[in-house]
């Protein structure tokens, strides 16, 4: 097995690839390139990994840097200059030697990613950090301490702050538990006093203490949003903001707190998801119980969307079965286009979500080319995706349309066009 030598791994105008950046000095352009080529390739992921290492060194020096996109652009420019000269490394004219010397001098300087001097972070930078940066832009004699005393002090203060917060919470919990025990004791003593029918001044004092303690310890009740309430709000198309006004009036009448608009919206989303999952599970159990074979129906409809979308082309996906009563609407996903591939992808995604891919035995569709195409039709693609042939059932309505159209054409001749009335077109658009 051949082994690579140091000569073989040596980089053009650079030393050997760098396994890690130094943590006591800011890296030069040469250091960054050596670290990059140690990863093996000049890919985007490798450049990002090297930039993360460089930024960590600068952060350790407490010097603010420019945004990451600017650092990435600077590195790409440096790599581009190096690659251009590397391609012409066999040429050794006087001009090429001068270019090599200039490039080496540029690489030996600091890979400067410091924030602009006019930025607020640089203006408030400590003087010792400014001196360190100025030194590395020139002679590069200063180094960072291996032990960052300032960072250690920050960590120590952080741990002390967390410990104090923990002690405060433990103290509050102990006081709460003690207050609860006092309430129970006061309640018990009052009950005993009532049994013996004693009305002393001490019992009055205890009753007052119990009332004030109970009032401070009891939490106010909040209006609860049930599934029925959420379903009713959805049925009448009540937004969360409008529902908040209704709930606030009810809560004020009942003497409880009303949930906020964001809480109402969050609860409605959770309840909708639970209702949808329950409906899917219930119908799935019915199909398994009757061992039903499903007929899959789909048809595209143009429906109004949001104000920004206008009208959206959606695909209604329905299943029926002789073993089950009625039909079941599975989904109405939006279509990116009206092609057979787009429809087949949405239908497959829906039936796999419902776990009906092994239950579908037939397809019911209209007779458009996007459905009945031999190569790119939705039916053909669905059979390929499910891995088995399916019974193709052309919709009888569309079949009768073709028969009636042919009958009228044979009886009355070619179809005639109606009058072009602009008023009708305006009503049609509305």
Description:
It is a single chain. This protein is of the alpha/beta class and 430 residues long. The protein folds into 4 domains: 8-136, no CATH class; 150-217, no CATH class; 227-274, no CATH class; 291-412, 2-Layer Sandwich (Nucleotidyltransferase, domain 5). The protein is 58% helix and 8% strand. It contains 17 helices and 5 strands. The chain has helices spanning 6-9, 29-38, 44-60, 68-87, 94-108, 120-123, 127-136, 149-196, 201-217, 227-235, 240-254, 261-290, 340-353, 369-372, 378-386, 396-412, 422-429, and strands at 294-304, 311-320, 327-331, 360-365, 391-394. It has a 5-stranded mixed beta sheet with strand order 3-2-1-4-5. Helix 8 (149-196) packs across helix 9 (201-217), helix 11 crosses helix 12 (261-290) and helix 13 crosses helix 15. The protein starts with 5 loop residues before the first helix and ends with a helix. Residues 147-173 have a biased composition (Basic and acidic residues). Residues 145-173, 195-220 are annotated as: Disordered. Residues 197-218 have a biased composition (Low complexity).
List the helices and strands and how they pair.
Blueprint: H1 6-9, H2 29-38, H3 44-60, H4 68-87, H5 94-108, H6 120-123, H7 127-136, H8 149-196, H9 201-217, H10 227-235, H11 240-254, H12 261-290, E1 294-304, E2 311-320, E3 327-331, H13 340-353, E4 360-365, H14 369-372, H15 378-386, E5 391-394, H16 396-412, H17 422-429
Parallel strand pairs: 1-4, 4-5
Antiparallel strand pairs: 1-2, 2-3
Question: Biggest sheet: strands side by side, in what order?
Answer: 3-2-1-4-5
Q: Counting H and I runs of at least 4 residues, what is the number of helices?
A: 17
What is the H-and-E element order? Answer: HHHHHHHHHHHHEEEHEHHEHH
Low-confidence stretches: 181-205, 207-217
Q: How many distinct folded domains?
A: 4
Shape: extended
- Please state the structural category: alpha/beta
- What is the rounded Rg? 38 Å
The count of strands amounts to 5
Mean pLDDT: 80
Please give the share of residues in helix.
55-70%
Which percent range describes the beta-strand content? Answer: 5-15%
Q: What gap, in angstroms, lies between the N and C termini?
A: 79 Å
Sheet with most strands = 5 strands, mixed
């Amino acid at each position: 097995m051949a082994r690579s030598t140091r000569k073989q791994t040596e980089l053009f105008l650079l030393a050997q690839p760098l396994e890690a950046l130094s943590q006591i000095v800011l890296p030069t352009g040469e250091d960054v390139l050596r670290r990059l080529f140690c990863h093996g390739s000049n890919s985007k992921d490798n450049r990002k990994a090297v930039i993360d290492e460089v930024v960590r060194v600068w952060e350790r020096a407490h010097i603010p840097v420019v945004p990451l996109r600017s650092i990435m652009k600077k590195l790409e420019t440096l790599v581009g200059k190096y690659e251009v000269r590397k391609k012409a490394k066999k040429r050794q004219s006087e001009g090429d030697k001068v270019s090599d010397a200039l490039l080496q001098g540029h690489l030996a300087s600091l890979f400067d990613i410091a924030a602009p001097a006019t930025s607020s972070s640089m203006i408030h930078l400590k003087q010792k950090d400014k001196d360190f940066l100025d030194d590395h832009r020139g002679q590069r004699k200063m180094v960072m301490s291996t032990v960052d005393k300032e960072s250690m002090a920050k960590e120590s203060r952080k741990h002390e702050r967390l410990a104090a917060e923990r002690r405060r919470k433990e103290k509050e919990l102990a006081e709460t538990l003690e207050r609860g025990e006092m309430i129970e004791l006061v309640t018990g003593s009052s009950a005993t006093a009532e049994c013996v029918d004693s009305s002393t001044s001490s019992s009055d004092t205890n009753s007052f203490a119990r009332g004030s303690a109970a009032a401070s310890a009891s939490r106010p009740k909040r209006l609860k949003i049930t599934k029925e309430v959420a379903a009713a709000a959805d049925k009448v198309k009540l937004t969360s903001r409008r529902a908040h006004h209704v709930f606030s009036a009810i809560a004020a009448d009942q003497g409880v707190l009303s949930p906020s608009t964001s809480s109402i919206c969050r609860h409605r989303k959770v309840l909708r998801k639970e209702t949808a999952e329950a409906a899917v599970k219930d119908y799935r159990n019915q199909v398994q119980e009757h061992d039903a074979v499903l007929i899959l129906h789909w048809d595209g409809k143009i429906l109004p969307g949001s104000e920004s979308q206008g009208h959206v082309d959606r695909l209604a996906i329905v299943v029926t079965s002789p073993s089950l009563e009625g039909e079941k609407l599975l989904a109405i996903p939006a279509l990116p286009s009206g092609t057979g591939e787009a429809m087949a992808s949405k239908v497959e995604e829906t039936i796999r979500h419902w776990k009906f891919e092994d239950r579908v035995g037939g397809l019911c569709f209209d007779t458009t080319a996007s459905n009945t195409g031999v190569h790119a039709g939705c039916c053909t693609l669905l059979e390929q995706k499910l891995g088995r042939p399916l019974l193709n059932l052309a919709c009888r309505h569309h079949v009768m349309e073709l028969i009636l159209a042919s009958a009228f054409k044979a009886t009355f001749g070619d179809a005639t066009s109606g009058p072009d009335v602009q008023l009708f077109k305006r009503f049609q658009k509305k």
